[in-house]
Protein 1
Amino acid sequence: MNSIPPQKQMTGMLGHPVAENPIDRMFDAVYAHHGLHWQFWKNDIANERDLALAVAALRPLGYRGICITVPWKVAVMPHLDELDDDVRAIGAANYITIRDGRLIGHNNDGKGVVKAIAKVAPLKGQRVVMLGAGGAGRAMAIEIAWAGAAHLTLVTRREEQGREVAERVRKASGVPCEWQPWESPVRLPQGTTMLMNATHLGCAPGLEPVPVDWGTVATGCLAVDVITNPRITPFLHAARERGCPVVDGVEMLVQLAMQIFEQWTGIQPEEAVFQRAVAEALGE
């Protein structure tokens, strides 16, 4: 008599766009490595109405957890039953745990980027310029401040957003943080030691360049990109040509994905398994 295989445990992602993100192939490979009957689905959610429907469907569909990516990290919050301390401090959620029928919002975007940066350079004392301050950017700005940065400048097109996030950073950390209007090209304040792209620019398939005046970037300034595909974006390629050390978005993805995996499954992650899985997903 054939036994019935266990039902798959469902996890996934809500965002727009999601096609180029390698996170599903990475998680599925790690689930298989650990012998888990789990699966990860990416879902392209184009508007806030569909976001509300998708979040409401997580419980009846039996999901165990879901990642939230751009542009829904702030908009998802009213649809959740509970927010952890990081979400309340940051004002955005990047993943959800479904426990006892309750949707619990978490944010480890910043924790992932801090771990990735720490592999290349210490954050203490850095004077940081961040391009963009959306759901991921605001989390990263606060965590970078908590990790010991000396000063942050947020460069955004929308003044209201930039000033709101700067105030949130100051309130949460006590670290000086100011807004600078987005100009093309973006000129860095003198003394900047770390430049971070927290925008969509450079993502496959568009591969748009980030409009930075590289003449204002000091040789040796640390360049950080949140884009996960390709690993070396036009922004990071230009930074390397300028003589800057770089931190890529794939490394951030690995660091935050390991934390999410442990939260969902209770299993201590192996970094080598995640690194191998994401490299295979990117065809490296």
Note: The chain has two domains: 9-107+251-281, 110-247.
Protein 2
Amino acid sequence: MLFKKRILIIDSSDSARTILFKELVATLNDVDVIACATAQEALTATRRFEFQIITTGLTLPDMDGHDMIRQIRAQQKNRDTPIFVVSGDTQTQILDSDAEETLPNSITAYFDKAEGHKALVEFIFNFLARDTSLSARILNVDPSATSAAITNSILEKNNLNFLHVKDGMEAIHELQRDIEAHDKCTYDVLLTDLNLTPEMDGFKLIQTVRNTLKLDYLTLPVLLMTIEPEGDEKTDFTGIFGAGTNDFITRPVTEDALMERVINLINIKRQHEALQG
């Protein structure tokens, strides 16, 4: 069972916030909705919970909306959460090049307040309807039968479709086959161990995916699995993220930790697909 979905509403207007809250609860009865009137309330909520969608205005009583969004993006839990800005001046916001330079990739989309609450609820409903439990596909690369069995059992328990392969070349061939068959990559997440084979370790696999197959961070998010450093060893963050990894997790993994990261990466892909139409 996937984690319960949550939506965060941030709106300084009591009436607007209440109307949107009630309509979302009535339409999405399997989703938790949290409503906040201020940026500080919202930041407290985002530090505590992971959200599937955040909606906010930019005029808040205690903080500029852009500053609040920057702080949300700096948090681990919601750095990739889709954020929809509800504004009465969407055209100006979209054309404001200065805002784009200071806030790159932080706002997922602008929603015109004039379209009304029902249109916003429908937009959110359609976004959430891209059900990860039904359509997500994971490519799991792991040479160890033992660790692969643990990972695969977690994915299976959470109703995620997956294919397990044992080495990097097999993964590359599968991705090439998938692209040729569908004219795009239909896998949502590449999950790979760091230690594969001498010819192609996890870093080289990810670099091949990024540079040869031309699958970027949004088209195929990558989660790298490593072992916990021992003694004076330190995690090679430069190597991990320099190779093109979206995120990493250390073994032994727990179900909650693995699924939190996998779902975050699925959301990255879903967000990208939604914006691409």
Note: The domain at 133-276 is CATH 3.40.50.2300 (Rossmann fold).
Protein 3
Amino acid sequence: MSTKAVRTSDPTSDAGVARVDMKFEIVVIPVSDVDCAKEFYGRLGWRLDADYDSGKDFRVIQFTPPGSGCSIIFGKNVTPAAPGSAQGLYLIVSDIQAARKALLDRGIEVSEVFHDAAGVYAGTDEPYLFGRARVSGPDAEHRSYRSFASFHDPDGNGWLFQEITARLPGRIDPATTTFASANDLASAFRRAAAAHGKHEERTGGQRDENWPDWYAAYMVAEQAGAELPQ
């Protein structure tokens, strides 16, 4: 009788096992010049959380992007990875044009907004890797997961902005809808307002006195990837 463990992706197989929360919080970025990297990530507008120097050939710096639950660390003798080898680092934004402009205003070089000619783009910042081809401009239908912009730090570590306004079904629990920042919440309100305007047009142009309930239902459904109210 075999005793080889068999892995399964079926979540019901763990029904009797207590769930342990595992929060992904740190990504290590390999850099060659610690002070140059510190200046760059500070210029992005990211929060400096720590700069610890042991004075004994060890230094670690931590930054956190606005609204992010995950931080980056880099430093001296932090990782054996080659500087610039971190690629395909995704930054999720609700308005890619605004995110791109924010970096340009800070003097950071950013690519134009693009989408993948073949469909959903995923992976590193190499435009023709695996046969992918970039198409200039955002996704024509402004669908979530489809529009990108890229930039690099001084060592060449590659970052991608990805615009997401509505998550795929099942990714967010509607009962725990949250927004990472005031900007994300404001953007969600604007999308709900635009959709509600179309809703009022469909219902004869009469003012909807229950618009707060409609907005709330729309914003929760959008984030959860559920069917949007009409």
Note: Residues 22-82 form a domain with the 2,3-Dihydroxybiphenyl 1,2-Dioxygenase; domain 1 fold (CATH 3.10.180.10).
